[in-house]
Amino acid sequence: MPPKAETNDSYERSPDLVTTRPNANHAEINDEQVCLMKELAHLRKLAANAHREAAVAERRLQEAKGSCTAVASCGNKPQDKTAS
């Protein structure tokens, strides 16, 4: 019978303490979680900014499509009012 591998029992009993280092102590796990939460907050801010920029770009695109459609449906080029 092969010898039993050494494990960290407290890690096995605490599935909420997920870490890339299963033998880390609680302070190290807490530090890692704090870093991950900060990174997550930063990524959420970046995602919110990207979402806002996409919404602005979509609105500008729709406005541009609307003005192009209006000119095309009229069939006439805009008149130069300075020539009159």
Explain this structure to me?
There is one protein chain. With 84 residues, this protein is mostly helical. The protein contains two helices and no strands. It has a domain at 17-68. The chain is rod-shaped, with a radius of gyration of 30 Å. The mean pLDDT is 75. Residues 40-67 form a coiled coil.
Supply the key terms:
mainly alpha, 64% helix, rod-shaped, coiled coil
What percent of the residues sit in helical stretches (DSSP H or I)?
55-70%
- Give the N-to-C terminal Cα separation: 103 Å
Count the DSSP helices. 2
Shape: rod-shaped
Structural class: mainly alpha
Strand content: under 5%
The beta-strand count equals: 0
If you compute it from the alpha carbons, what radius of gyration comes out, rounded to the nearest whole angstrom? 30 Å
Largest sheet: none
Low-pLDDT sequence parts: none
User: Kindly state the mean pLDDT as a whole number?
Assistant: 75
Succession of helices and strands: HH
Coiled coil: 40-67
Biased composition (Basic and acidic residues): 1-15
Keywords: Coiled coil
Region (Disordered): 1-26
List the helices and strands and how they pair.
Elements lengths: L8 H5 L12 H49 L10
In short:
With 84 residues, the chain is mainly α. It contains two helices and no strands.
